[in-house]
């Protein structure tokens, strides 16, 4: 079997794509902002080493839909195509970069750059990277279902509902500072999607009240809503665990005891907001 040339393509998580050919197109690298807020611009960069080849075209795709094409021999060489969430500034775009005027929630996705060479090699290579547009919740989570008073043996039946955000917020319940992990007392509700692309979540908490729930005559029930960005990991998405980009808001319910009887009044419902500043990945 005769093989005129061999091409080896390697994909890396950081957007690198390396190719090896005989003196031709060597590599392509994509650089996009990992995170943007709605309304901000974004610069998408596609660097490449043609080796001895001559450039034929550069094409950009978002989630497999082409939105920008640069063909060196055409006049004009650059063209854009309508894709939801993508608004190209043609005056600021060329064969190595594409400038997006104003991003929205629908801009989030996987961006791919494909570089092709002229004859005689006709070689091509591509690289991709993910950009996520983050919209942090403006409202604190809300705890509902609180009764005026409780008695040992009563059923605690609470719901925590987050504010709207993107990506979807993650809700956690805590009792006296201990994270609730048992699915037997957690009630998962389907997410609520809004027309603007934002999402709200609700998580229920169900358990029977007992005297062991009170520490020094006080029980603290807390709900925390957090938003964590995601990175593309092959064929799946993974929550970023090690990087400090997180917005957290919490609601705190204090239930105090009354000595001498079994009635515990829900004396205070206090909403406390802790907002953590978004810090760019380094």
Automatic annotation (TrEMBL):
It comes from the Eukaryota. Keywords: Signal. The keyword Transmembrane helix does not apply. Residues 1-20 form the signal peptide. Residues 39-123, 141-179 form the Ig-like domain. Transmembrane segments: none annotated. The keyword Glycoprotein does not apply. PANTHER family: BEAT PROTEIN (PTHR21261), BEATEN PATH IV, ISOFORM B (PTHR21261:SF14). This is Uncharacterized protein LOC108735520. The gene is LOC108735520.
